[in-house]
């Protein structure tokens, strides 16, 4: 009889823990970020990066297949994006090189754009950016990953599957928790 009580208690604890996880993280929506035809993560998108603190001019594939990727979708015109920059800087420091950490704007960057590269670099320096920054002028990443508004934070595991995505201002702890979900998923291919 005691053994049955112990097993029932353990089973009840598992149900409570599972319910807590659903309450905190929500129910996964498996198809949200998958290719409709193949049910696999879509191919990475090549983004132009800007020479700025923590960032080199060139290109980067997002997500980076083979390691976790954190993506911050922002706009230089966005007040909440500015407000979130210190939390992003702290999360980047805490996570280090474990993930590809990248902020991307869909603003038209260039001499005839809504913002010049020099203005973007000035904005980046003024607000403490010190990681990869790029732009998405065709809004491919934005249309794929935007979660309702700016800023949007997205954590993608090494297989290219989104493990966490939310819009709005996040604390460093919330960002790190989301990133850790992608790191923990590893190569399991589970998630959204």
Account of the 3D structure:
- The chain is of the alpha/beta class.
- It has two domains: 1-30; 31-185, 3-Layer(aba) Sandwich (Glutaredoxin), CATH 3.40.30.10.
- The protein contains five helices and seven strands; from the N terminus they run H-E-E-E-H-E-H-E-H-E-E-H.
- The protein has helices spanning 2-25, 79-95, 117-126, 140-145, 172-185, and strands at 45-49, 58-62, 69-74, 100-105, 132-135, 152-156, 162-167.
- Strand 1 (45-49) and strand 2 (58-62) form a beta hairpin.
- Helix 2 (79-95) crosses helix 5 (172-185).
- The chain is globular, with a radius of gyration of 19 Å.
Keywords, please?
192 residues; alpha/beta; Glutaredoxin; 2 domains; 7-stranded mixed beta sheet; 5 helices; 7 strands; 19% strand; disordered N terminus
List the helices and strands and how they pair.
Blueprint: H1 2-25, E1 45-49, E2 58-62, E3 69-74, H2 79-95, E4 100-105, H3 117-126, E5 132-135, H4 140-145, E6 152-156, E7 162-167, H5 172-185
Parallel strand pairs: 3-4, 4-5
Antiparallel strand pairs: 1-2, 1-5, 3-6, 6-7
Helix pairs in contact: 2-5
């Amino acid at each position: 009889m005691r053994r049955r009580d112990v097993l029932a208690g353990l089973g009840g604890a598992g149900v409570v823990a599972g319910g807590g996880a659903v309450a905190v993280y929500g129910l996964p929506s498996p198809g949200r970020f998958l290719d409709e035809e193949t049910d696999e993560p879509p191919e990475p998108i090549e983004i132009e990066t800007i020479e700025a603190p923590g960032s080199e001019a060139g290109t980067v594939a997002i997500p980076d297949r083979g390691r976790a990727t954190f993506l911050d979708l922002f706009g230089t015109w966005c007040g909440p994006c500015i407000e979130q920059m210190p939390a992003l800087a702290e999360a980047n420091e805490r996570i280090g090189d474990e993930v590809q950490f990248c902020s991307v704007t869909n603003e038209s960057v260039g001499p005839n754009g809504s913002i010049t590269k020099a203005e973007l670099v000035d904005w980046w320096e003024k607000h403490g950016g010190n990681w990869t920054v790029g732009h998405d002028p065709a809004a491919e990443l934005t249309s794929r990953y935007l979660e309702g508004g700016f800023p949007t934070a997205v954590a993608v595991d090494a297989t290219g599957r989104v493990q966490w995505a939310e819009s709005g201002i996040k604390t460093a702890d919330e960002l790190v928790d989301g990133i850790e979900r992608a790191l923990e998923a590893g190569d399991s291919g589970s998630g959204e």
